[in-house]
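Subject: Protein record for review, amino acid sequence with C-alpha cells
Why sent: The fold of this protein is of interest and is recorded here as C-alpha cells.
Enclosed: The protein record, placed directly beneath this head.
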Amino acid sequence: MAPVPPGDDDGLDFFARLPALGGFAEVLDARSFTPLPGGWLVGVADVVDSTGAIAAGRYKAVNMVGAGVISAVLNLVDQRSFPFVFGGDGAAFALPAAFGPGMRKALAATATWAREEMGLALRVAVVTVEAIRAAGHDATVARHQPSANVAYAMFAGGGISWAEAEMKAGRHLLAEAPSGACPDLQGLSCRWSPSPAQRGVVLSVLALTVEGAEDAFSRLGGDILVRLRRLGNAGRPIAAEGPQFSWRAPGLALEAKVPIGSARRPQPKWKLFAFTLLAWALFLTGTRLGAFDPRRYRGKVATNSDYRKFDDGLKLTVDCSQDEADAIERLLEDGRRRGICHYGLHRQDAALITCVVPSYVRDDHFHFIDGADGGYAAAARMLKRSRGAAGGAPGA
C-alpha cells in the first residue's frame, strides 16, 4: 500500500497546528487539551499476553511490535505529523476518516507481521470519535514538544482507555491480513543498548485519576513532577550525551525481521550487521560521515525521547534514587487511599529504547522509552491490583 500523498484538505494538519504546551506539567490541566475533530478515527493496538512474553525475556520484541504500529501509520501518511502514543506493549493514535481504508490495511498487515515474524499476537481495533462520545467519553489531545524536532500527542478525556477496553472485550477488532502480508516499517529500529540507571533505579509509573477527583489528581501529579525536576533533566533515563551503541546491537536479530519500503522485504542480515559495525565505529570515534554527525544524533536521542506522557493518565519512565522512588510511591499510595488515583509502578535497573527514524541525517527521529524489565506492562499489572483493592471506586 503506497503512502497517502499529502493533501490540503484531508484534515491531518489539525495536530500540527495545535500550540505546543509551554511545559510538560501543563498536561495536568484539562484546558490544555482540544477535542479531536468529528469524523476522526482512533486506532488502538496491544500485544496479547505481553506479561507472558516479557516473563520469557521477550520485552524488546514486545516494545518493537508496539512501536511497529506507529511506524506503519507514519509511513502510511508519508511522515506527516499525527497524534500517537506508545504504550510499551501497544500504541494508540488518531487519523481523519480519509485515511481509514489505508489505516485499517496497515494495522491488519502489522498484526500478521507480528504473529508470523515476531511470534506475538497483536490485537488491533478502530473506533470512531462519534462512538467514543456516544459512550459518554471524549477524545481530546494536546501537543507536547520535548525538543524543537519532534512532537508527541497527549490524550485525555477517557476515550482512548474506553477504546482499549472495547478492543480487549473483543469489539471493533480488525482481522489479520492474509498470511505473508507485510506493512511498511521503514525506520523502525532497536539497536541501542539498554540504558542503565544512573541514580539507582529506573521507575515506570502509571497513575490514573478517579472520576470526580481531577483537581486533586492534578495537584498530586504536580507534586510528583516537582520532585523529578529537582533531579536534573527531570529524571530522564537517557544520559544527555545519548545512549550507548554496541557493535553487537542487541536488537539486530529483531530488526532483521522488519519489512521496509515498497519491496516489503527485510534487509539481509549481513547488510544490517555491516551497517551496525560502521555505525558503532562512527559513534565510538565521533567521526562524521557526510551529513551524519554521530555526536549530534546521540544527543537528539536523549532530547527527543518520550519518557513522560499523558494518556488518560500520567505515565513516566524515570531515573531516580531508591529513596525518591519510595517517596513517589508514598505519594501515589496516599492518593489511592484518599480516592484520588489508581496507580501501578515497577522498578528495574535499566531503560529500553525503541526508535522510529525517518532519516539518520535529520533531527526528527522518535525514541520510545520503556523499562528494561517489564516497564509499563509490569506497572499495569500492579494497577489492576490497585484498582481492585479500591473496591470498584469510580473510574475503576
